[in-house]
Write a structure and sequence with these properties.
The chain has helices spanning 2-75, 110-119, 169-179, 214-221, 234-245; strands at residues 102-106, 127-130, 145-151, 183-189, 225-227. It folds into 2 domains: 1-75; 79-245, Rossmann fold. With 247 residues, it is of the alpha/beta class. Keywords: Coiled coil, Membrane, Transmembrane, Transmembrane helix.
């Protein structure tokens, strides 16, 4: 009888130990599951955070691109070709002394070209171009004198700065014509500060980009940068006349 009780006690102790071991193992598994759930939730939170940050950056990028596009449209309307003239518009193609004089026009009224002809270069025919895209430059033949009209704007951008401004058609037009040995004049038009100029000045000195933009600085040293309101000043007419007489 004692042997039987002893065996039963041993079996009960063994069973109890196994139950404790199973409970401990269950507890470990439960802890692992809890830890996995915490890690999973943390990863989900991180992923959601990344998605939110990505969406915020995407919204900022869309807003920035929209502003950039609006600025591009605002400050470069002059870079577009008029609807009734989808290609390069030009007048008579005539030659004087074997050389051709060309006039590159960036949106300023065509009447300004006529004013220059009446006031300073009556003896020369004038050919006008509208440069809407850089590909239009291929339609301009090398010539001795080229006058680029730039319409006034709120920021007084005469030629674009590649580091701060949007677009580059005015700058590249000027550089391209200069490289093919055209004598390039830049005329900044409709500038209210140019309604009156001292006799020894060709442009409004408050247009600071003339002293800062590398291309404009080079042209300024050769007296090739003018600013006007509605018509040329006497000193500008005389300078253009002297230049034309040398053709």
């Amino acid at each position: 009888m004692k042997d039987t009780q002893s065996k039963l006690q041993v079996q009960m102790d063994t069973l109890e130990n196994r139950c404790k071991a199973m409970e401990e193992k269950y507890s470990e598994i439960k802890n692992d599951i809890t830890s996995s759930e915490i890690n999973f939730k943390r990863e989900i939170y991180d992923i959601n955070l990344y998605i939110i940050l990505f969406l915020i950056l995407l919204i900022i990028a869309v807003i920035f691109m929209a502003q950039k596009e609006l600025l591009h449209r605002k400050y470069h309307e002059s870079d577009r070709i008029p609807p009734d003239n989808p290609t390069v518009g030009c007048g008579q193609n005539q030659k004087v002394g074997g050389q051709e004089t060309a006039l590159s026009d960036e949106r300023f009224e065509m009447s300004m070209a006529q004013k220059i002809k009446e006031e300073g270069i009556k003896s020369l025919p004038v050919r006008t171009y509208v440069v809407g895209t850089l590909s239009d430059l291929f339609n301009i033949k090398p010539c001795q004198v080229t006058i680029i009209f730039v319409d006034s704007n709120d920021r007084d951008i005469i030629l674009e700065n590649p580091e701060t401004d949007i677009g580059d058609i005015r700058r590249k037009t000027t550089e391209c014509l200069t490289k093919i040995n055209c004598d390039v004049f830049i005329i900044y038009c409709k500038d209210r500060g140019s309604q009156t100029l001292p006799p020894n000045q060709l442009y409004n000195t408050r247009l600071h980009s003339i002293d800062q933009h590398a291309t404009l600085v080079k042209l300024k040293k050769k007296n090739r940068v003018f600013s006007v309101y509605e018509c040329l000043h006497l000193q500008q007419v005389e300078l253009l006349g002297d230049c034309v007489e040398q053709l």
